[in-house]
Amino acid sequence: MDQEARPLRIEEEEMGGALTPAEEKAIKEALTGGVASCPRCGARLRTTPISPRPDTAYVRKRALLECDGCGLRAALDTG
Fold it and tell me: Could you tell me how far CA 34 lies from the centroid of its own chain?
């Protein structure tokens, strides 16, 4: 399974588990416009960049997405 199709893990078990590929795609598309809404409750997502680790040979551009409305938390590749 390639990385694009793999669902993300969510820290909040009550949120129904991992993001679906459709939810992940919707968030990525919204982030290109600058602001993303939660695919589950519609609230604005707080986006925090995740700095790459210095001990890895590859660099991935990632962000932590958090929803204050429903508690959704997910790390997403953004670039």
Answer: 14
Flag the least confident range among 11-15, 19-23, 48-52, 67-71.
Answer: 11-15
Which residue, 61, 5, 72, 62, is CA-closest to 39? Answer: 72
Helices (H), 1-79: 21-32
24-53 pLDDT tens trace: 998 988 888 888 899 999 999 999 998 888
What is the token pair recorded at 4? 């694009």
Residue 27, exposed/middle/buried by CB under 10 A (0-12, 13-18, 19+)? Answer: buried
72/14 Cα distance (integer angstroms)? 9
Residue ranges per domain, the chain? Answer: 36-51+58-79
